[in-house]
Amino acid sequence: xxxxxxxxxxxxxxxxxxxxxxxxxxxxxxxxxxxxxxxxxxxxxxxxxxxxxxxxxxxxxxxxxxxxxxxxxxxxxxxxxxxxxxxxxxxxxxxxxxxxxxxxxxxxxxxxxxxxxxxxxxxxxxxxxxxxxxxxxxxxxxxxxxxxxxxxxxxxxxxxxxxxxxxxxxxxxxxxxxxxxxxxxxxxxxxxxxxxxxxxxxxxxxxxxxxxxxxxxxxxxxxxxxxxxxxxxxxxxxxxxxxxxxxxxxxxxxxxxxxxxxxxxxxxxxxxxxxxxxxxxxxxxxxxxxxxxxxxxxxxxxxxxxxxxxxxxxxxxxxx
Length: 320
Hints:
Elements: E1 2-7, H1 11-22, E2 26-32, H2 36-46, H3 54-60, E3 63-66, H4 70-82, E4 86-90, H5 97-110, E5 114-117, H6 124-127, E6 138-144, H7 156-171, E7 176-184, E8 193-200, E9 205-211, E10 218-225, E11 228-233, E12 238-246, E13 256-259, E14 265-270, H8 280-294, H9 302-317
Parallel strand pairs: 1-2, 1-3, 3-4, 4-5, 6-9
Antiparallel strand pairs: 6-10, 7-8, 8-9, 10-11, 11-12, 12-14, 13-14
Helix pairs in contact: 4-5, 5-9, 7-9
């Protein structure tokens, strides 16, 4: 088992602590957080071992799980990598693309693995259809959340939209050609609602909307490709696959047939895979352990985390 430690014991950090303790791939050694009152409360409630410094925790483990505020990601990850430790970093990877590039270079130099916590890649609704998404040419994503003061220190693009940016970049095999976007600050100092249009070199277009001032939660993405429509509901953990194929000469009475202006007939049929129950955060941590043990590339690599950040920052730059 890999010895693991958690840096940062806020809301998400506590979730990571509990899941690492449950995992059969890790031995949870302890955690560090500068908030002494919070540390004492967690140690008392859960019995996890607190460390006096980030450096002490790094020295004691094989894997560091970084769940600190984003501004601290780079410095603590750099310390861990230079100590030869593997790093799991919550999204977004860092504050700047330059910091992300520096971490990638360090990880290569010190021969350690790194993964970024884009957890929606492990959402069962997404994993159930990911292999069916093939050269999509139009993508629409809506990620709406009720207001929560936690996370409003960063634009909604880095708080919410970056999940969809990462998912889209993972299925569109093309470079970004152009980005246009708008954002509005309603209650926070940074934009609370944003819309972005990403155009790719291969002609694919992605339209993304994110809001943290909605009256209800919604996390949906729709992928349109030749002869297929794929819908993913990340919130309800449901998916739908609608495909079209050439209609037979004599379709049965219940077949759904469409005919275009040229007289070409297509039959519609549904291919909806079952969606297994899982804990996406536990899955992302466990697959990272497997990547370390097998010396393979993590599912969400540092390089992919950098690309998602790069696009997110380009979107934010459109607001100015």
